[in-house]
Specification:
This protein is α+β, with helices and mostly antiparallel strands and 76 residues long. The chain has one domain. The longest helix is centred in the middle third of the chain and has 9 residues.
Length: 76
Amino acid sequence: MTRKIIDARSGKDGDITHVKLQGNSRFTSVKKAMDMADRGELENAHTVRGPNAKTYLRSNPDKWKSNNLDDMAGDS
């Protein structure tokens, strides 16, 4: 069963720190969400790992801006 991210929170530096999953009343840490994404448990996000880059969670690309994690967190 896959889950969907419906909201996000960011820290003072603007990085996403927590996400809310559909059906949950509480936010989940981004670390746990990245683990879920790595196992294929998130339908609308994936973990990005680049050489010499910070690992982060990213929403899957589509034509909608409103479902981007930064938009959900109110950072854009």
